[in-house]
Amino acid sequence: MNKAERIRFLDALRALLGASHVLSEAHDLAPYATDWRKRYHGKPMAVAMPGDTAQVAEVVQLCATHRVPIVPQGGNTGLVGGATTDASGTELLLSLRRMNRIRDLSTADGVLVAEAGCVLAAVQQAADGAGMLFPLSLAAEGSATVGGVLSTNAGGTAVLRYGNARSLCLGLEVVTPQGQIWNGLSALRKDNTGYDLRDLFIGAEGTLGLITAASLQLFARPAARRTAMALVAHAQDAVDLLQQARGALGAGLTGFELMSAHSLQLVQRHFPRLRLPLELSSPWCVLLELSDNEGEAHAQARLEAVLGLAMEQGRVVDAAVAQTLAQAQAMWALREHIPLAQAQEGLNIKHDIAVPISRMAAFVESTAELVTQALPGARLVVFGHLGDGNLHYNVQAPLGGDAADFLARHQDACNRIVHDAAAACGGSFSAEHGVGQLKLDDLLRYKSPVAVAMMRAIKAALDPQGLMNPGKVLRP
Amino acid sequence: MNKAERIRFLDALRALLGASHVLSEAHDLAPYATDWRKRYHGKPMAVAMPGDTAQVAEVVQLCATHRVPIVPQGGNTGLVGGATTDASGTELLLSLRRMNRIRDLSTADGVLVAEAGCVLAAVQQAADGAGMLFPLSLAAEGSATVGGVLSTNAGGTAVLRYGNARSLCLGLEVVTPQGQIWNGLSALRKDNTGYDLRDLFIGAEGTLGLITAASLQLFARPAARRTAMALVAHAQDAVDLLQQARGALGAGLTGFELMSAHSLQLVQRHFPRLRLPLELSSPWCVLLELSDNEGEAHAQARLEAVLGLAMEQGRVVDAAVAQTLAQAQAMWALREHIPLAQAQEGLNIKHDIAVPISRMAAFVESTAELVTQALPGARLVVFGHLGDGNLHYNVQAPLGGDAADFLARHQDACNRIVHDAAAACGGSFSAEHGVGQLKLDDLLRYKSPVAVAMMRAIKAALDPQGLMNPGKVLRP
């Protein structure tokens, strides 16, 4: 595209959306050009901000005509560079943020229809306002959007009971790479009429088309919730406690998070006002949440029964059950501040692995040995969604070391150690963050070539021009 | 394919599988040639019965070389003709029944790996034997196979709590149309590494490749189950009772089936040994099931509380809670005998519709009016999974009429009335049975053309020779 063509394209775009919804000045582009973790620095040709689905379709048609690649962006909270353009200045960043309406909410059907730019917290609040629950919950929920959490199939802290973003989505509205609108906003629980296009777009990170709206599943709000923290001596004790709690509480067990004592010590260092309810006398701490349909007292008794038995059996060293909502929120705050404390402590090498629960303890122990052998003094910050077999197995520079230098020198080798170890356990190198730009090589290394070939065939079939978020998920 | 080519192909097939695993005599083919409902009569060139995945891959390669279309078949219990060949004598029927091993079962991971030919009941029993639950349950479970229930994304009576077949599958092993083996038998709850190929094969009815094995999710077995029947005067009362029970019982509500009084009267007529626990003084009956993690007494009290309140409120006319396992089984037997009683009564026009719960009562009432206006004397046999918004809205010939003639003359018009009514409510013409051959026209009529075009693009990309179950799901 030469300069004259570029001008014609931007003029057409402005005519379509109104000049105020097309950004092209460097200082306007800046907030959209860099990812949240500041690892990827793109240079969009412009930022287009359509206000409705018809406009999205027209923008996509315009891009198809001019062969302009499109990079969709929601809240820009992704962790793998999936919503950042390349540095060529030829890609259009398409921000869905203006499309932030909740179009419909039916308590009778348990369905909420939200546009792609709707912030996750706004969906939670709308459900809550109607006396229902939208359970998807994650640290970035104040900024992350519906389109983003679906395009990355986000996870979070309630997957154990309610599943990931995929499980909570009943239907989609999508603009195809040809600029057509597919209205698949179903409110049905069952519909076996052809290929599952919905689940193909979910988790495709915008490479097959643009999600513009979604029908999301709401749940009855539990009558009571109870949160507890429990200290255990070994990772295997946490796994055994999980099985025990799951057996006793069934679907009532709505949260089961693991945190290493070291992660909590980082929180204490950087957020000293957050108080620990237990003295960290063991290397591992578990956060449990019970949702109960009967009431506070019943919930309390059930959770205490599980933890009491586990203590008798020597599986749990010490435990505290929150007695008030404030205490429960304080426990969750400890968990949620781990990534922030880690960021305060300095740059670190992040992983988002999953392994089968039965291999979890062995993975944690053997990988710790491998990492500390290869990188003497490196500090492990291990925490995550044990109930889903998903840990953020992060590695921080040695105390007092130069974190940026550590990252630059050791990131690749460290990724290889951790991802090889997960793969050896039948695990995944990306449990809930996706592939984006960050893990393109991992995908080729760990994924079956047969699967990659099918992915390429699907990409070529649906997006033959290759204009939808190019260079993400699959290396071109 | 001329005769010499056909002989060469069959010789190669016998060399591959052993002569005893290739059937080509008419009397051997017969059980595979006709569907369970005896609506479709195919003429397979032969039946191939591979014993393992490598053999399936070799058969597919052989077929690709000789351009022989493949129709996969499991238990042959499908309701839409999806597993029946055409009458040309050129299609190979590939039976997966010999592949019936349970390869692995891990209680720690809650995962069972079963081959495609494994009968559903065998999977349930294996889970039960390990002290766990595989919740997928449907009338044909004694014959239906894992490959079949996944290829049609089967539903059944436990979808309300545990989801359909799709929700219970963690990973697949698939032989592609090129005869390659994709090992995607994951035991992970979370894995965001590229396009969701698993869900693309689930529900594709064998048109994109052959499912040869699956990793399936097991659950903790509830401590107690309680079943009840409740009579209601209007369909809307049943819907209101559903909301009330869901609010009070949450995930404990594992079954919620609706049966018209007329359906139960048919059961009484044809299976008089099955006793009704309530006198049918109302036009609708609901079957509820509660699964409880605490025990029998707790379950009993919870279910009685819900039904007691609903009776006080006038929503429920009469109710009976099963006091013993035998009573509970008798209640379920009434529900499960409806399709059998209906078959005894004579041929009928079946539907498998879904509508949003909020539209259910209006759909039921207005459709009854439309059908009986168009087909005077026609008898409605309405029952199904109300909790999922899914009804089998079946239409039987007038009492004493010629059922075969009624079917031949009125099936198309009747389908149109019922499917149009479902579509007008935002519903589906196939909730859990799939498309197969039976609903090819419905798919084109009711599905968005944008979605159909994407389906065709995916089919062409993955199966460019068009040899995988041709003429199913999509008209060629």
From TrEMBL, chains A, B:
GO terms for biological process: respiratory electron transport chain. Its cofactor is FAD. Residues 40-221 form the FAD-binding PCMH-type domain. The keyword Flavoprotein applies. Coiled coil: none annotated. GO terms for molecular function: catalytic activity; FAD binding. InterPro entries: FAD-bd_oxidored_4_C, FAD-bd_PCMH, FAD-bd_PCMH-like_sf, FAD-bd_PCMH_sub1, FAD-bd_PCMH_sub2, FAD-linked_Oxase-like_C, FAD-oxidored/transferase_4, Oxid_FAD_bind_N. Keywords: FAD, Flavoprotein. PANTHER family: BLL6224 PROTEIN, D-2-HYDROXYGLUTARATE DEHYDROGENASE, MITOCHONDRIAL. Belongs to the FAD-binding oxidoreductase/transferase type 4 family. This is Putative D-lactate dehydrogenase. It comes from Thiomonas delicata.
